[in-house]
Amino acid sequence: MNKYFNTKRFGFLIKEEVLTNYKMGIYFITIVGIYTVLAILSFTVSSLTDAAINRNSINYMFPGFLFIGGYIFSSLIFSDINDKFKSSLWFSLPASTLEKYVVGVLLSGLGYIIFLNIAFLVGSLVSNALTQPIFKDGMELFNPVKLFSIDELDSSFFSASIIFLVYIFTHSVFIIGSIVFKKAAFIKTALASSIVSIAYSIIFGFLGYYIGKLGLADHWDIRVLMSVERYFEELFNSGNLVSFLYRIFIIPGIIFTLFFNVVGYIKLTEKEVKGGI
Q: Are 96 and 5 in contact (CB under 8 A)?
């Protein structure tokens, strides 16, 4: 088993990836800088025009940075294997393919979420340190649980974390893109995903149309479907909305991400056998 996954080796690999990724340091400074500049501009305009200011306006940019920035980051996580000069160094790292893939998934998934939360929190702190002495006011400190909570849900933590789960469930698609495509992986993956989604929609649309037109569903026993519908209605109306969302979202999401991560791992092993060609 140690041949495929060794915890000590895995830990060293994560440490190496985190400490040597200077681009993420630049990205962190960029986020903090953008946050601070926008906060100063917002309070400057507000003080000159007496316009009301939403103290969470900059914090609401978080989903954009999470999904767009995270998908771009995921589409670059294995870009070294497609580089003529960096591929030999990457494949010669003293770690198994499984360890390398899991590190990539963790850093581009949970790691990116933690990184972005810290960046926005630091951005709100730095901006407040500058705006409070000048304008006697500042942006709300970044708190995703409070920011994205939904009153109708039983748990504000769940309603806030749902956005993170959507990202974790879907970013593996762009990890595959970073392995398969040599250039412009983000654009090509987004385009391929869109084409596949449209194709499936057209196929199922035609199936539904012809099933209805030919009357194939006229004699189907729909009692099973009706019982499933009643089950979800009772669950929804019971007030346990979190449990309802778990059943219709989280379980399919886990299946979705497991499928694409298995495909991504297989593609990575194929690349390693071919030497990145």
A: yes
The number of angstroms, rounded, from the C-alpha of 9 to the middle of its chain's C-alpha atoms is 26
Determine the Cα–Cα distance for residues 120 and 72; give it in Å rounded to an integer: 18
- Which tens digit of pLDDT belongs to each residue from 192-216? 988 988 887 888 777 776 666 666 5
Q: What's the token pair of residue 177?
A: 């893109």
- Residue 171's contacts (CB-CB under 8 Å, 6 or more residues apart) are 70, 71, 74, 108, 109, 112
Which of 28, 38, 29 shows the shortest CA–CA distance to 61? 38
Question: CA 111, CA 157: separation in Å to the nearest integer?
Answer: 19
Tokens of 56: 């969470």
For the segment 113-164, what is each residue's pLDDT rounded down to a tens digit? 999 999 999 999 999 999 999 888 888 899 888 777 655 454 556 667 788 8
Could you tell me if 172 and 257 are in contact, meaning their C-beta atoms sit under 8 angstroms apart?
Answer: yes
Tokens linked to 72 = 């771009």
Residue type, 62: F
First to last CA, the chain: 28
Check: CB of residue 36 under 8 Å from CB of residue 127: yes
pTM for the model: 0.83
218 neighbors 131 (Cβ within 8 angstroms): no
